[in-house]
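TA notes. Do not distribute before section.
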Amino acid sequence: MTEGVPTRRLGRTDLAVSVLGFGAAPLGGVYRALSDAEADATVAAAYDAGLRYFDVAPFYGLGLAEHRLGHALRERRGDCVVSTKVGRLLRPVRGRAPESMYVDPLPFEVVYDYSYDGVMRSIEDSQQRTGLVDFDILFIHDVNRRWHGDAVDRRFDEVMADGYRALDELRRNGHVKAIGVGVNDNEILVRFAEAGRFDCFMLAGRYTLLDQSPLDQLFPLCEREGISIVSAAPFNSGILATGARPGAKFFYADAPPAILERTRQIEDVCERHGVPLAAAALQFALGHPVVASVAAGFSSPAEVETNVAMMRFHIPPAFWEELKAQGLVRKESPTANTA
């Protein structure tokens, strides 16, 4: 256990990840520019607070987040678990990078490549951007309908026929300790679990106070197969941190009326029990035994301090019982205080 932040074992591996993980997407400038100094200070604050799991991807800021996380972790790497992702190669572009949610990203564009050679090249590129010799976990990134549309089946076949072989080889040779898939789609993870031998999945925004759909098929399958879940985006892109205020974000867009209303109802229960909404959002997923870590995004030392406090906040069992009684979360959702 790291000081102040418990750890959990990842699948059947020997890795232990802090139950609160550091999602590095904001280091790439999600919705607002971030300076190098702010990025360094944020990672340092997370490490000093006891976080020992850090996740990044080439896509975040088109390489910028990897540069910044690597720089900040270089002297702290020894006792940290670090993951990055494969599937997107970055190619230089003239002028500004394509429009995205990243503000002032590096001048690159994405080329999808889930082949054996593409995976190996992606890892080498990530090593150079981060300045880190190795990674503990590699995730296949974003093989889902949101990014690939009707081509998602072709992408799935490509990675399982070729890219998966590269990851499995790296694991067998001891170059990485765990391999997985990172998406926001339950169905595709079920397909991956049935098609290969994975240690962990990163599931973004699909096991939260507003969505418990993985309970139907994915989580029971993961329990049987010994696959751990890293539950990312616990605030569903913002609304479960900010509350149901105007402009609140849900999956990177303005929250629809039904989500705003459901969030208001959850906030009412929070108020009755004296529980901050953010504390409930961060701790909810950890009630399920298949979840090893909740990975939240951080863009300032203040956010680190707040979220660590929210993770430690004592939530009475009666709070969870009322959410279930009102049908605001599913009754079969396991819940437990994690403070």
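Switch to the second chain here.
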Amino acid sequence: MKTSPSCEKTVPLQKTGEQHNTEHTISLPTVQACVQRYNIAKDRLLEVNHWGELGGPFSANFTLTDGSGHVVHHKAREGDHIRIDLPGPGSKTGNGYDWVEIEKIEDRCTSSGNSAYVAIRVRPSGNPRDFNSRIAHFFAPTATSSFVVERVGNRIKASVYGRNEKPNKEHQEGLLDRLRNVVVAVSATLGFSKPQWQGLVKGLLKN
């Protein structure tokens, strides 16, 4: 199942660094059943605080915050941030966490009702609780991650698309953070983050 042209606009073109795609597709007996499952998956995608549970034992912990870094429990909104707690040493710049900002949310349905998608695109950001914070993430700010759930007919696909991924070496205050970012970024591009994203896309679509 191909991603719709509208949805592809959410995912930036690959221009520099590395990229990755993680996808999981299911088919259901009827369109009605598929619509119901899609609506559940859509809600799961927007409930960022539960991503860690969906991702399984290999997942980082994800916490949704507002633009000031305060933990919130609403569905994801543009301008919110996600605080990421990875296994192992955290970013000193991010007070022990990696941070991304939700820069775009798309929620579309065709007039015929035969297809629909919802997508969240995030980009590395500073710690929103520290106004002068540098980018607090192992990837440089060129990188994006796009999380997509799409339905066409009686099929649903959940996907994570990483684009323009490069280690964050220029936006850190100390040598230790630069070294840490290179190690984590290289590990991610070599596929060590794949089980996490595989767990998430399957978790979004589970019964």
